[in-house]
Description:
Chain A is of the alpha/beta class. The first copy, chain A, is 34% helix and 16% strand. In chain A, the strands form four sheets. Chain A has a seven-stranded mixed β-sheet, sandwiched between helices.
Amino acid sequence: MERVLNFAAGPAAMPLEVLESIQKNICNFNGEGLSVMEMSHRSKTYDKIINETKENLKKILSLGDDFDVLFLQGGASTQFAMVPLNLADENDLTYYAVTGNFANKAFEEAKKWTNAVDITNSKVDKYKYIPEIDNSKLDKSAKYLHITANNTIFGTMYDKLPEIDVPLVADVSSNVLGKDYDYTKFALAYAGAQKNLGPAGLTVVIVNKKFIREDVRSKVPTMLRYDIHSKNNSMYNTPPTFAIYVAGEMFKWVINQGGVKELEKRNTEKANMLYDILDNSSLYKAFADKKSRSIMNVTFNLPSEELEAKFVEEAKKAGMINLKGHRVLGGIRASIYNAMTLEGVKALAEFMQTFESSNK
Amino acid sequence: MERVLNFAAGPAAMPLEVLESIQKNICNFNGEGLSVMEMSHRSKTYDKIINETKENLKKILSLGDDFDVLFLQGGASTQFAMVPLNLADENDLTYYAVTGNFANKAFEEAKKWTNAVDITNSKVDKYKYIPEIDNSKLDKSAKYLHITANNTIFGTMYDKLPEIDVPLVADVSSNVLGKDYDYTKFALAYAGAQKNLGPAGLTVVIVNKKFIREDVRSKVPTMLRYDIHSKNNSMYNTPPTFAIYVAGEMFKWVINQGGVKELEKRNTEKANMLYDILDNSSLYKAFADKKSRSIMNVTFNLPSEELEAKFVEEAKKAGMINLKGHRVLGGIRASIYNAMTLEGVKALAEFMQTFESSNK
């Protein structure tokens, strides 16, 4: 079988040329006689891989020496704990913009260790949109305000970062490298790799060094301390070496494609192609409010669950997989990260139009 | 260049046939049209992979339904925190057998949350041996006794598990699947994958279900709770999907080789070949005491650091890499995990004899 068109929300499609480069080197990396999987993380070759990967990401995001990049494990879910444990103390005020399920999980986790307040919350409106944050209402003593830059399940996204006078922390798992933000505005941003960065099992943390504290609460597990990982260049213990290498190949691909600005342009074009169909359809109904629409995850509904199931099934027969919405929301979701080509989205658009014609 | 003989302590050599099988499938797994790296962890295909991997490990270790296998992240270092946080409460007594650097790290971490006592400690003797544990001296109210089954840095190993009346917890990172223990004797055993199990970035936890508690302290991070991962079949969040798949290929290889008993036999033969040279040499001096010798990591010294450096350098020229000892101990270390063939060890043995002849 040829390669399918994979609209999965994550783990998600990767560029074929990246996979092919990995394939070529899997038993013998650059003729050195061993796989990257077999390399000591303390070897010169691996040292070069991890440092180049880090430098390329800093280059892509225009980050200077005031920022560090950490390669960790445990996914965004582990960051839900690390952020409050490292950036705040027991009674400190922290703000959460609750714009989806994962945002809410981050908020619930933070309540364990800080005075966490949901400064905005669109749950009553089924997370259909991202509420504005009113800077004038923020207590400036708050340690940080946490946003979820792109809400994978609901298909909503911050088009612009909030302008606030409190340090900004963001879960950028599902739009990092796909949407062009000014990363110097973040105190800290983190991402599970499994969308635009590489394979699951790697978490990338981008952190302004002045927010890395050594005086965290005494009972924080060593592995959950940013200062420990930063001091050890992500090698306090054995890092996920192969996943970091694959991320490095992804970063080279991003640079070759023209960087994040160019990818955002393409992603916008891809997303608009689908939103245009939704907005002009009598069959499909876009889920997210127009002003909050994601360019990474396009969510929509059909008139019945039966029709949605039929849509997913027929798309699969046409070689387009993973279009079923997340179990929390239902409906249809097309995730169109960097690796999904314009041609792939065109194929989906055509399928949607044909399906509408035959199911009026 | 041909593949080298890789004596790294971890990440370590993998069987070539496993790497080749992964290579074949990297862009298109079993003709399904996508890489395992691109697969949704909720897909049917991936579900089959993770469940088969789990079942194969349980089969290899002869574990019944009273045991669970968890696929986590963060390495043994994260387990150093998870064990005390999940298995004990604030003032509970816990025992640690401190037989090496990592054992000591586990002990130091446990002190943060429990009344941890180092029931044995061979630090004053440079961790040259593994002290006996006297069951009659153990307070039976202790929540567990933690051992490090194989001390990678020092080249020592428990040949037999201690017979004790306190639940036994073990870090088996560097001899799991290479040394045949009765795993039903463990309350919990954990391993970073990067030696005998697969690529770095995966931690395997083998746990007797009756030690999985739901009533852990309220402020334990969600991602550090065994009950959460067990209830969700290691899919509370996105697991390290590719690393789990590779571990699954390793497990199939172990079964094809005849299981752990057979591999232990081979590893013993490999190790004895090297120890015989050390014991009959006037140049080399084995580091570990005879009764505590590891069959996974063979550590030794030469009369001077200069000669040790020369040994490492000349071995490298002969295609044998990563023989330099850990920075904590110095000297030479040959790690000979399951994937290192008898022929590979023979080549090292011959090199050692030739080197001794020319450097008397």
